[in-house]
Design goal:
This protein is α+β, with helices and mostly antiparallel strands. The chain folds into 4 domains: 5-68 and 217-289; 72-216 and 602-612, no CATH class; 293-415, Leucine-rich Repeat Variant (Alpha Horseshoe), CATH 1.25.10; 422-536, no CATH class. Helices cover 31% and strands 24% of the residues. The radius of gyration is 27 Å and the shape is flat.
């Protein structure tokens, strides 16, 4: 999602003042779905006046920017337990002092003795709250042993419950805000996801281990030259005529002015997986039109929709116009150019038009450049046809496409029997019917999850795996003999079928962890003992770009811009923003405040400087 310099400046302003802008007199009027305003000073000239051209149209993006669209860093100091003698007693520094204080607040007895136990380790805990996250939503957590730590490995450790706060740099020091999230759970060291020999196990992640304790709003701000009560009212009214949603069981407009400049936005259900598109459509929404300008605009946009170079922007503007633009977009579906057909279908999908489903399904299957946006648009739809289009993609030969479809179907309807799974001891297992090459997919973000594509997939005859404390051996007649050595209560021996999903479920019941499961399947794949292949985090690369001059079948191509939220995660988004040269600056990525760039190493070293926020 874009974040211009104006937006970054506003973000800092909003965060520090907590959305309070000077104003003293109450506005006497209100508009439906918007609430009341605090009246600010109106300018003498009307910055919203319509140009002399009687057919002119003003768009919201001309006078308003967006806020709340960046990832917000939160962090804390935490305690990891259950390590296998690989932990360490932390040095006597401010990190240790802070953790001991937290332990005392939570009435933990003998904190120094606990820290001295080699089964524990002090860690720095970090998270990046995504834009629009709601209270109770989960997200991924990063844990890392500090530079001075002697901890050898965090493998199989468990982070004890801790509270994370937003931080910012001011005057060379880090300042700490209110609690934004809680975090806890089983740690997966980063090295288990790498096929390279990586001995560094002092860094890991907890998939879905963070839980937001407050929502992060998003919205618009009226730029200085246009800031007035009438501007906020006019913009909010235009948005609420186009968009509504349900809040606390009641239908309401999505836009609520907070004062003469700030408008807070709710996100309609259709856009929950692609907030960036929602904001882009709002920026293309007219807020003032003169007599006759609407028809002139629609005629112009229909002409632009037929030109690939400007078709994307035209489709967003038509989407912003709502129901009246549907016939134009439907005509766009009939054109020969697949790029134009995609833009038209994408807009129709977010407008809930069922005709878009089959076109998007076809484009997702054949056009890598538009695949991820097409799948996300299908996930936004409630129609049966959209579900059929997504389920057809489960048979696609490309594993990214299959897993992308699975993720879309799960986000759309977790109880869909086509992709329904079960919660095992420390992860989720889904067995999916798929006619293409068998795959076993392991997730690396959001939640620990194994998806078996090919529900009747089996290991090969003669299967043999010998790992640390675990042996799995084929014994004939479609059966496997499993021995887990040194388990609590002694060695465990179990016999199960050679079906991959049965093997995973049996191993989980014996206490085999997600990481050990991945290691076993990777070894089995290298030794040719599986019917299919193993994949990890098979989601699109955010650095791909669409080249209109290249062939559409080029697998390296991708629709321009960042990935939709459905396929995004905080680390990949931060990498994309840095590499693309747009949105977040490197300084913004290192410190949320964006005023001063520091390295990650220095951030950890400066952790002890954190002070309580005083304003």
């Amino acid at each position: 999602m874009d974040a211009s310099g104006d937006e970054q400046t506003l973000n800092r302003f909003l965060d520090r003042r907590r959305f309070l802008i000077a104003g003293t007199a109450s506005l006497t009027g209100s508009i439906s779905g918007c609430g009341y305003l605090i009246r600010g000073k109106d300018s003498d000239a009307d910055p919203l006046s319509v140009a002399e051209d009687p057919d002119s149209t003003r768009f919201i993006g001309e006078i308003a920017g967006t806020w709340g669209t960046r990832f917000s860093q939160v962090q804390s100091v935490g305690l990891v337990t259950n390590l296998k003698e690989t932990g360490s007693d932390p040095p006597a520094d401010e990190l240790r002092t802070r953790l001991i204080n937290e332990m005392k607040i939570n009435k933990v007895m003998n904190p120094n003795e606990i820290l001295a136990d080699p089964s524990t380790s002090l860690v720095v805990v970090r998270g990046w709250l995504p834009p629009g996250i709601q209270k109770g939503d989960s997200y991924d957590i990063e844990v890392v042993a500090p530079p001075r730590s002697k901890t050898a490995s965090l493998r199989d450790g468990t982070l004890m419950p801790t509270q994370l706060r937003r931080t910012e740099r001011r005057g060379g020091e880090l300042h700490q805000g209110h609690v934004s999230s809680s975090a806890a759970g089983a740690i997966l060291v980063d090295s288990i996801f790498s096929e390279e020999s990586d001995s560094n196990e002092s860094r890991g992640r907890i998939l879905g281990g963070g839980v937001a304790v407050q929502s992060r709003p998003i919205g618009l701000y009226i730029r200085d030259e246009s800031g007035s009560v009438s501007a906020s009212l006019l913009v909010a009214s235009a948005i609420n005529r186009r968009f509504d949603t349900f809040k606390d069981g009641s239908k309401t407009g999505v836009a609520t002015p907070k004062d003469n400049r700030i408008i807070e936005l709710l996100v309609p259900r259709a856009y929950r997986l692609n907030i960036g598109r929602y904001l882009a459509v709002i920026r293309n929404l007219p807020f003032r039109e003169s007599n006759g300008s609407r028809q002139v605009l629609m005629t112009q946009l229909e002409s632009e929709l037929r030109e690939p170079v400007v078709a994307e922007q035209a489709a967003k503007k038509l989407e912003a116009l709502g129901e009246a633009a549907v016939p134009i977009l439907l005509r766009g579906l009939t054109l020969d150019n697949s790029e134009i057909r995609f833009y038209a279908a994408e807009s129709l999908a977010y407008m809930g038009e069922v005709q878009a489903a089959s076109v998007l399904g076809e484009i997702a299957a054949t056009s890598p450049a538009f695949r991820w946006h097409a799948i996300t648009a299908l996930a936004s739809m409630d129609d049966v046809e959209a579900g059929v289009a997504l389920s057809n993609l489960l048979h696609h030969p490309n594993i990214e496409t299959r897993y992308g479809s699975f993720r879309a179907m799960f986000a759309r309807s977790p109880q869909d029997p086509t992709i329904a799974g079960k919660r095992l001891s420390s992860f989720y297992l889904h067995s999916v019917v798929s006619d293409s090459e068998p795959f076993v997919h392991f997730s690396r973000v959001r939640r620990p999850e194994i998806v078996v594509f090919g529900h009747d997939q089996r290991v090969r005859s003669g299967f043999l795996y010998v790992g640390q404390g675990l042996t799995v051996k084929a014994i004939g007649e479609g059966q496997l003999d499993i021995t887990l050595y040194g388990a609590s209560g002694g060695d465990q021996k179990v016999v199960c079928s050679d079906r991959v999903s049965d093997l995973i479920e049996t191993l989980s019941g014996m206490g085999v962890t997600y990481g050990k499961m991945l290691a076993m399947f990777r070894t089995a794949e290298r030794e040719g003992q599986l019917q299919g292949k193993v994949a990890v985090h098979a989601v699109p690369n955010p650095k791909r770009r669409y080249d209109r001059e290249s062939t559409e079948g080029q697998e390296a191509a991708m629709h321009q811009g960042p990935l939709p939220d459905l396929f995004n995660d905080s680390q990949r988004e931060r990498e994309w923003q840095t590499s693309s040269g747009t949105g977040l600056s490197e300084a913004d990525l290192e410190m949320v405040d964006g005023e001063e760039k520091v390295s990650k190493l220095q951030q950890m070293g400066d952790f002890f400087k954190i002070k309580k926020r005083t304003d």
